[in-house]
Structures are given as structure tokens and as C-alpha cells.
Amino acid sequence: MSMTAPTSMLETVAFDDPVLANQLFGPHNAHLDLLAKVSGANIDSCGASIVIASPDDRVRQILCNVFVQLYDVLRDGCALGCDDFSRAYEMLSADSGLELSSVFRDAVFVRTPRKMVTARNVAQRSYLHILHHYEMVFSVGPAGTGKTYLAVAMALSMLQRQRVKRIVLTRPAVEAGERLGFLPGDLAEKVNPYLRPLYDALHDMLPQAKVAAMLESGIIEVAPLAFMRGRTLNDAFIILDEAQNTTQEQMKMFLTRMGFGSRMVVTGDISQIDLPILPGAQSPRSGLVHALHILADIPGLAVHTFSASDVVRHPLVGAIATAYDKAEKYRPSN
């Protein structure tokens, strides 16, 4: 593989393995077309080479960096999808010195019975490393960063390796409140809508029949937070999702359920608190915000924070979100 000196607007990258180069370019040059759309450059293939045309020298250098590094990742046997190329461009745009092998080839991964779950960016790689090494983890950040999904994957992996004997997944059903009794069905049917995202993560990693059998046997338990009161959970991997909607009392109750041989992961987005504001208070009494303030220095406990730039989503979803953000920004005030 070699790189020629750039002209005023062109950069050429040649690869030594035509078969691997075709994988890099994608079916019908799909990966090249995606990066051209993301970067605004023109990218064409010629045999086992690519030609990048852009008046922006920085864009050309970022694209060369992307192709050279991802070619090495492919050569080492790591499969890449279209979204990996757009994420690689975003990451190298933010940090030109980043080694993509640390994200893709050498990424921390967990294997579940149905799939292998890998870190999709540097933040997720760090998160999975923390989940491996700490007994209690707080994960904070916006939706779409993989906070809960990766925690569920880690729980299934540890269950498979007999590091824990069961998994407990829980959420506060804040929206239900006093209205829970007016919903149709028994208690399980009333709270299940609030637990649906946890079931979705399980079904993505386990066959549906397997999930049903493990729920029936109690190896996996999915329950609202109120069901945790008065229990001590030993040899369990326990995940509290949407923790920003716990009260301080609920958070204390939950954290003190931890027993011997157990792991706890608490996930939430402190920008999306749905708790009611009590009379005389200026903000909701979020148990997650309070816990982060008073527990951060406790040994054996780790806090991992995701940012908006760590959101992993379909490129079309990102474009839609950007369009709405622009519309909100330029909306005339009445």
C-alpha cells in the first residue's frame, strides 16, 4: 500500500490486495459513496486504488487516514459495515491521531448466546472495560449511546460464563404514578409497557423462546423498581435503567439491595428527568443526580459519562435529528 503526494485538490491511495480493496470500497462502491456524502468530497475507485478530490486539504487527509486504517483493520480479519465507515470519519475528524484499531480490531467485546457485541466507538470501548472491572457502575448520557444495551450484553456474557447466577433488570415506572390502577389488566400487564426496552434488548441477544424460558425459571427477572424493596440480591447482575427518574429514597433502596457476588449497573440521562417538581423545590429530586454527587469517590465504584457525540444511530436518523435541531434553532419566536 502506498500514498502519492497530493496535488492541489487530489489525493490517491493505492492498496496492494485487490480483493481486500473491494471489501474496503463496499458493494458497488457503497462505502465510497457514503464517505463522499458525509465529507462532501468526490471519491472514485480505479482498480485497487481510490482518488479523492476536494478543495479542502483537511478533508482529503481525514479520508486518506480513514481508508488506510480501515484497510489494516480488514486485513486483520475484522468485518466492517457501512455505519463503521461513517463513524470512522467522524472519529478521525475529531481526533486525527486516533488509532481505529483500538475501536474496531482491539475493541473490548462481549459474546452473548445469539451474537457478539463489540464497542462501536471509543466511549463504548471504555464503558465495556469498566463493566468488566468494577462491581458497581453508573453510566450517564443521552439515548442511543448504548448504556443499557451494552450492560445487558455484559450481563448475559457473565451469566453464560457462570460469573453470576441470574440477571435482574429494573426500571422506575414514573409515568404510571397514581394512574397505574386505571390501566387494564393485572399488575404485570400494567407495568410491562415501561419495561419494554429491557425486553427488546434481551430479544436482540437471545432467541425469544430462550428469553421466555429464562424468565419463567427466574434466571432473568424484569420488574419495576418497587419490586426490589426488602430484597438482598446475591450472585446477580442487576441493571437499573432510566435511573434519572428515581427519587433519592428509591436510589438508596436500590443500591442497598446489592449482595455478595453481585454486579450493579445504573444507567440514566440526567437531561431527561420526568419526576414531578415538589412544591417549594426548584428542580426534581432525582436519585441519580444525588447519587452521582455523594458516591463518586467511593472505591470500587465507577462513573462513565457518554456525550451526544457518542450516540450510535442510523445515518438517516442522524440527518433527521439534525434537521429538527436546525428547525428549532431558527424558529421565529412569537
Give keywords:
disordered N terminus, single chain, alpha/beta, four-stranded antiparallel beta sheet, 41% helix, globular, six-stranded parallel beta sheet, 334 residues, 12 strands
Polypeptide structure, described:
- The protein is of the alpha/beta class and 334 residues long.
- The protein contains eleven helices and twelve strands.
- The protein has a six-stranded parallel sheet, sandwiched between helices. It has a four-stranded antiparallel sheet with strand order 1-2-4-3, covered by helices on one side.
- A hairpin with a 2-residue loop joins β3 and β4.
Helix content: 40-55%
Unreliable spans:
2-6, 176-183
The largest sheet has its strands arranged as 9-8-10-11-7-12
* Number of continuous helical runs: 11
Helical/strand content category:
alpha/beta
- How far is the N terminus from the C terminus? 59 Å
β-sheet strand percentage: 15-25%
Question: Could you give the order of the helices and strands?
Answer: EEHHEEHHEEHEHEHHEEHEHEH
In brief, what are we looking at here?
By secondary structure, this protein is α/β, with parallel strands linked by helices. Helix content is 41%, strand content 16%. It has 11 helices and 12 strands.
